[in-house]
Structure of histidine kinase:
Amino acid sequence: MKSKKTFPFQKSIVFRLLISVILIFIAMTILSNFAISKRQETLMSEMGEELENVLVDSQENDILLLIVDNAQLKSTTEFQMYSFSIMIATILLGSLAFFLIIMHVIKPLKVLTEKVSLIDIDNVESLRNEIVMSKGGYELEELSKSFDAALNKIYESYEKQKQFSANVAHELRTPLAVLRTKIDVFKKKQGHKDAEIEYFISTMENNVTRLSELVEGILFLSRDAQPQYSQVNVRSLLEEILLDVEDKAKEKEISMTIKGEDVVVLTDDMLLERTLLNLIDNAIKYNVEGGYVEVSLSESESEVVIQVADTGIGISDEKKKHIFDLFYRIEESRSRVTGGYGIGLALVQNIITRLGGSISVSDNIPQGSIFQVVFKK
Ligand SMILES: Nc1ncnc2c1ncn2[C@@H]1O[C@H](COP(=O)(O)OP(=O)(O)O)[C@@H](O)[C@H]1O
Ligand SMILES: [Mg+2]
């Protein structure tokens, strides 16, 4: 059975506020009463002095009748004004004290707001940020605990999904490898060239390649391997990549150039190659016949910039926001026979972030897109 939790009054914000109100109220009442009675005393002593003067002037045998009307004393306009200003001062002072207390009470709320605003759903690790507020009152602590529990649940479910897709991807690896071997063997065995069979085989081959890329991509995203850093000559790396994609570019009569000096970056060569290959592959895939792909390198004191520019179909501003999302493909490219599953750019962003860089996309002029990768030195 769940034990009933006792409400910790002393830690409750409501309780603290209530006590503050009562204390301020008492303090202000005492203060105003004190000020008013002080004034009364002065008035009385002034009257006493006046009386003494009268007594001095009077003859010894005179009978003196003195009637002091307390009500009359209080109701003099001067006294009324005085009490009124004391009342206003008390209200102002009390409000100020209460305002300061409220500001003090909601300060932790601002801290919590800041902590929550630092959580970025695109950066899953930020879900694990510590947001429980142990100071600042019972209610706030409970609220932050509920937030924290909800975020932890989201994180756990993300981890489960990641594990699940990694397992599926892992299981798919073997049958895909078998399929690929069978296709290769069949291709070699085929003596005659039957156009229909050849078409069938190449479709099989293309799709096995797409599936393998997907599987490898998912496996890569599910691993949090640490990058292996070394000094990498980006220009040489790019030259190798361009050789690898040469055939693809020739099919569409796309010319490719590298502009810029030799740039050396401290990075993971395999990971950087993977990113640049993805960007260049897209630049060819989403290009027009006879277009060009230009990769440029530049370096300043503080950063290294790698740009991949194409003359392709371009990306609208609305779509730019989503192209780095996993499995996102722009509708028009979905219908294309060639192309992957929208995993490439998600992978690119994941890698660049792991390597401590950033990636952005802009429009090329007059047409196409420019992908820019920046590494801080
Ligand atoms: N250079 C580019 N020019 C135009 N569109 C692009 C370019 N690169 C990527 N895209 C768009 O972004 C989507 C996501 O790219 P990516 O993650 O590499 O997936 P894939 O290439 O498998 O479709 C692509 O489907 C395509 O619509
Ligand atoms: Mg791609």
